[in-house]
Structures are given as structure tokens and as C-alpha cells.
């Protein structure tokens, strides 16, 4: 803004009786930027999809941050005498083979899933925003190199790649190792999205204007392009949290993800599969909670897309 | 067309070598002893270990290692298990089963997905539209292994409609696993068909066709349908990757002795070389299939050839 003021005649001069050029140009931009998100918010507040998924996500986040709020039982305090109890008043979700309270374990399982989902999404979005905006803004050989690298990573499906890397590199696999592998395999999709959004935004007149005024590329990307290209990224990131949680559970289920004694829904289902006939509750509770979690994030992404994507209006 | 094909083939080469190199580096070039790492907790006598090092050329410099490894891949050599049995034997034995399962799943998802998508798309906002949108969302949200166990428990054990596990009852025993395997992609295909149909129904040529007095049936069925299928076809290629990942899980749940089950057993039995061999094979198949679909894409949509 300050760059511009210097170049133009002062608004008070007699030559400008009506609204100045400055005002005419600046106003719609401000109103539009404000209104996309304000509009979206107004629309979202009335959508049942958004409200339901929002409430679910808040509950799940509380569960992850503060499991003590939901259960007083210690998930690791087990007594073999209580092995494989059916759900009852004392143990709401029954107990597992070791006689641990299954309700407490299911609640505590939220922490790992949501941490991995959020961590992986945040990191791969950051990588994608950085590389994607560089590729999309500069084009040319920089873009070619980044795009080809992305193609290579993209050619490896997540679950297959996850199995190979986790199986061969890490002998002990905790939250960090699993997250790292999912980040490594997850950024290319996001990068393609950022790149195309940046390429589309780059063609806008206000970017040309900023460039003509001599604004540095980094500042153009940060102040002018990214804020206008970020809507699809937000939508996709929300859905990705759900997809990653599902992928982590699948990897743990297959025996290449988290390892005992970690408490994770994927692991619980993996252990429960041998007792599907005698103790189906061991499978149903973590499965249900896992599904609800993935569902909330995907639903939220859908609601955000409806509100943020002007093409669908 | 020719130029597009050549460009696409040229692009394929670095991607193919890049992806195989990545897998190769992550498995064989890690610090420490990859053979030891792949064997996990299992004990390997010194002779076996040395023989495996020779087998995988681990004492050569890295580029030579990769060269020899790729030479093997081109000749269909995907390594041995720890007893010296080639992974290729396993592939020959297990692949037909997985192909059968995948084809069934594929047919299921394509037919039902497209039908559901069209039913939803022709009357946007109608009852069918909402039904399809909500049910697909639920299917997408339930992880495939939860869905698999649920289907096994309800349709197999409780109602006894389908065999619970194994392949003793021929093609019939593949039905339930195939439905589970195809369900997520079915949901995506339905949604994609719907969106693409809605978009195309707004096009000028649809108005022209309607103005000419063609029946709604013909406008949707002939004119719009073909154009709406273009994004769906591209999705099918990407989908193959998730179909493979899904096959590993589905075959594990339903105890189907295919490639996916072999991967799972490899993980369980600490047969790292088998896991790596099969997964490398699957990734190669995935990449080639993607190439083929891109070519098909150009046949379907002439616009892409002249870009």
C-alpha cells in the first residue's frame, strides 16, 4: 500500500473531484478478499454438515489433548483376571485380552491418530506451499525440475511405499518414524494443488501491478499470491488429515506401522482380528471411533469446499 | 497424436527410473546392513548372509548395484526369499488370484459407480443425488479394513450369505472381498461422474441437442455421457494404486492367497526381501498402467493431443 501512495498524486488535489483512482482500485480488492472468507463463514454457520463435523472434531481434539476428561481409568493398568470381558457398566467397551479397560484404550488411541494426522498434514502442506509456490511462480526450468521430482514421488502409491520404507529402514517404529514416512509420501499431491493454484493466481492483474511496482518475488508470493490461492489448499488439507489417519491405521494394521505397546486404533484392530468371532467388540469400538474421526475431517473438507470454492456457487 | 505419445513416453522414462531408484536407495543403500534389516528378528547364519549379499550385489558400488538390480527387474527378477526361492515363483503362483479379485472389484466399482453417478447427476439436488452424496461420504470415511471386517462379520458370519474366508468356493468366494475392495473407489467414481455430468449438462452442445428436440435420454446417454467419462477414466489409473494397497488389506482379512496376502505374510514372517520384491513389482505395474491410461486419455479426448 505504502509503495503505491508515493507514486500517485495526493487524493485531495482538485483534479480528482470524484473517487480517486486509488480508492476505486483498492476498494473492490479489499471487499472481495474480506468477503470470500466472511461469505464462507456466514454460509458455513448455517450448514449442518459443518456444525456436525465441527463439533465432532472439537470432541476428538479434546480427547487427544486431554484424555483424562473422558476416562479416569488408566489404559495401561490391566488385570489378567478381567481378560476379554464383554461391555458392561464397569467397563463400557469391555476389556481386551490382557484385561485392560477397552474404553480407556480407545479414548487414548485418539491421541496418536490425531497427532499423526495433523503433524503429517502440516508438514507436507508446508513443503508443498514452499516448493509449489516457487515452481508455480517462476515456471521455466525450476518448475520443470520440481514437477519431474514430484512425478517420481507420485508414482509410488502411499500404502505400498509405506510398507517398503517402514519395513526396511526402521527396526523400531514410533510416531515420528511413521509420520516421517507419511510426510515423505504425502507431499506430492499437495504440491500439485499448490502449484496449479499459484499458476492461476499469478496471471491476475494485481500480481502484474505489484511486479510493475518492483515488489520482490518473495513478497509477491507471500502477500499477493498465497492468500488468494490458499482456499483449495485449506480444503484439501482438511481432507488429508482424515486420509492420513486412515493410512496410519492401515499401516499399523498390516504390522509395519506403530508397534506395541503404543496405543493406536490400527494396532487395536490388528490385535482384535484373530478374535473377531469370540470378541467382536474389540474390533467394533476402535473401528467405529476411527471411522468417525476420518468421517469428520472429510465432512469438514466437503463443507469447506462448498463454501470456499466460488465455482460451485 | 504421435507427438503427444512420444512426449508422454519420454516423460515416462525418468519417472520410471526415478521411482525404482528411490525404492532401491531406501531399501538397499541404507546405512548398516540391509540384509540384516530385512531379516528383522530372524537369525541368519553368516554363510546365508554373505550369499544374500552376493545375490543382491551389495559389495559393489551403488550405481553398479542399481544397474544390476534394474537389469534383473527387466528380466523379471525381483529377488529371492531367505530360503533362496525366487520371488518370481511366488508372483506366478499368486498373481492370477489377485488379478481375479481386482478385476471383479473393478467391474463392480465401474458399473455401480457410474450408474449411481448418473442417477445423482441428472437431477441435481433430488432425492437420489442426496442419497448418493451421503452414502458415498460414509463409504469413503470408513477405512477399508474396518469395512472389510464389518462385511465379514455381518454378511459372512451373521447372515451367512457369503463365504467368510478362503477361496474354496470358486468365484463366489471372491464376491464379498471384491465388493469391499471396490467400495471406496465406487464412491469416488460415483462422485466424479456426478460432478462431471453436472458440469457437462451446462455446456452449449447439450442445449443445442435439446433444442434439436432430442429426448432427454439421448442427450444424457449419448452426448453428455461420453464427455463426462473423461475424468473418470483418468481417475481409474490413479485408483489402481489404491486398489493394490486395498488388495493387501482385503486379502489379509478374507484370507485370499493372492499377492497382497503374500506381502502381509512377508511382513509377519520377517521376509523383507519378499516384501520389497513384490512391492517393486506392483509399483512397476502401477506406472505402466498409468502410462497406458494416459495414452487412452489422448484417444478419448482429442483436445489433449494438441496442447
Layout of secondary structure:
The complex is a heterodimer of chains A (313) and B (307).
Chain A: H1 2-7, H2 21-45, H3 48-65, H4 102-138, H5 140-154, H6 158-169, H7 175-202, H8 205-212, H9 217-254, H10 265-272, H11 281-308
Helix pairs in contact in A: 2-11, 3-4, 3-11, 4-5, 4-7, 4-9, 4-11, 5-7, 6-7, 6-9, 7-9, 8-9, 9-10, 9-11, 10-11
Chain B: H1 2-28, H2 34-39, H3 46-55, H4 62-74, H5 87-122, H6 127-141, H7 144-158, H8 172-201, H9 204-211, H10 216-254, H11 259-268, H12 272-300
Describe the structure.
The complex is a heterodimer of chains A (313) and B (307). Chain A is 71% helix and 0% strand. Chain A is mainly α. Chain A has a domain at 59-70 and 111-263 and 292-312: Orthogonal Bundle (MetI-like fold), CATH 1.10.3720. In chain A, helix 4 (102-138) runs parallel beside helix 7 (175-202), helix 8 (205-212) packs across helix 9 and helix 10 packs antiparallel against helix 11. The radius of gyration of chain A is 25 Å and the shape is elongated. The two termini of chain A are 31 Å apart. The model of chain A is unreliable at 1-17 and 23-33 (pLDDT under 50). With 307 residues, chain B is an all-alpha fold. Chain B has a single domain (1-307), classed as MetI-like (MetI-like fold, Orthogonal Bundle), CATH 1.10.3720. The model of chain B has no long low-confidence stretch (mean pLDDT 80). Chain B is flat. In chain B, helix 7 packs across helix 8 (172-201) and helix 10 (216-254) packs parallel to helix 11 (259-268). Chains A and B meet through helix 5, helix 6, helix 9 and helix 11 of A and helix 1, helix 2, helix 6, helix 7 and helix 10 of B.
Task: Find the structural class of chain A using helix and strand composition.
Answer: mainly alpha
- Count of DSSP E strands of chain B? 0
CATH architecture of chain B: Orthogonal Bundle
Tell the overall outline of chain B. flat
The helix content of chain A is over 70%
CATH class of chain B: Mainly Alpha
Give the SSE order of chain A as H and E letters.
HHHHHHHHHHH
Q: What's the CATH class label of the domain at 59-70 and 111-263 and 292-312 in chain A?
A: Mainly Alpha
* Average pLDDT reading of chain A: 77
> How much helix, percentage-wise, in residues of chain B?
over 70%
Shape of chain A: elongated
> Quick check: average pLDDT of chain B?
80
Largest sheet report of chain A = none
CATH topology name of chain B = MetI-like fold
